[in-house]
Design goal:
There is one protein chain. The chain is an alpha/beta fold. 42% of the residues lie in helices and 15% in strands. The protein is built from 11 helices and 8 strands. Helix 3 packs parallel to helix 5, helix 5 packs parallel to helix 6 and helix 8 runs parallel beside helix 9.
């Protein structure tokens, strides 16, 4: 884990300076298979290095049968696209993370990076552009014009290729909404790791967007996320890990992985008073509507 990734861990996961770096125990398997629609296999965490194959198998054993591997720069996006091209349990999302946009713009390389993302988005098993968006938590005022420019470019890439958009929104709800309304959101738009309140959730759902809930929905003080979950139509709900970050309770602060999805799904089910099998089936159906089938186009579109 790089210094920047560790900073993100502390900022987003709330972990202290001393962490338990062992992976949590596997949960009970879900009664109906689901998908983790946002994870980062390329970011290592914990005391044990676990291969992608091992992570996928461990996830499958508890009912998580597919993932979307999400890029945050050109190298990670290209790596994810190559992985997805040959693995039936992986689809890819490609993008420049909003917090990297100001640095690339200052270096004069943002346009080149966006062109590379555009080329990757044409591959058949790249099914989303993301994570892109706005982050006013870690980017100061002077860097925000570059974030806006990058976000709008990613929106156009998603629309041009007819694939989903995965949005990173940190302390920028109103600005994300205004941008999507001004530029025009893609048909399939996902608010990754939804962090808004019930009012924002209603607006997003009314626009036809999808809200993806991570382990943060299980955190004790995040009442606003559970209130948001309560008002979202079931056909707009997705689930994710954002692994290795945002590990659900009761393991907050420890390394996260796709096999942890059942902890979050069960917490969501309990809050909603829903039937676990019904909610799993609904989430799975929603995920396939957004990203398409995991078994299509295997062996095609790999980069050299």
């Amino acid at each position: 884990m790089t210094a920047g990734q560790e900073q993100r861990r502390r900022a987003e996961d709330g972990a202290g300076t001393k962490r338990d770096l062992e992976f949590p125990p596997a949960p009970e398997a879900l009664p109906f298979s689901v998908y983790d629609n946002h994870t980062h296999f390329d970011i290592a965490d914990g005391d044990t290095v676990v291969s992608v194959a091992e992570q996928l198998e461990k996830a499958a054993l508890v009912g998580v049968v597919g993932v979307v591997q999400v890029g945050t720069d050109v190298p990670s996006s290209a790596w994810g696209a190559e992985l997805a091209a040959v693995n039936p349990r992986i689809l890819a999302a490609v993008a420049i993370h909003p917090n990297d946009a100001p640095r690339l713009a200052s270096a004069g390389t943002l346009d080149d990076a966006l062109a590379a993302i555009d080329a990757l988005a044409a591959q058949p098993r790249v099914r989303a552009v993301g994570e892109t968006g706005l982050d006013f938590f870690r980017t100061e005022e002077e860097g925000r014009p570059a974030q806006y420019a990058s976000f709008e470019a990613h929106i156009e890439i998603a629309k041009r290729h007819g694939i989903a958009l995965q949005i990173h929104d940190r302390d920028a709800h109103d600005e994300v909404l205004a941008t999507l309304r001004r530029v025009g959101a893609p048909e399939k738009t996902v608010l990754h790791c939804f962090s808004g309140d019930a009012d924002f959730a209603r607006v997003a759902a009314d626009q036809g967007w999808y809200l993806s809930f991570a382990g943060t929905v299980t955190f004790k003080n995040n009442h606003h996320l559970r209130e948001a979950l309560s008002v979202v139509p079931r056909e707009r709900i997705l689930v994710e890990t954002d692994a290795p970050f945002l590990t659900p309770m009761p393991f907050r602060g420890r390394p996260n992985a796709s096999y942890m999805v059942p902890y979050t799904v069960r917490a969501m089910t309990e809050h909603l008073g829903a039937d676990l099998g019904d909610l799993c089936a609904r989430i799975a159906e929603n995920t396939v509507v957004v990203y398409g089938s995991w078994v299509d186009d295997i062996g095609h579109g790999a980069t050299s």
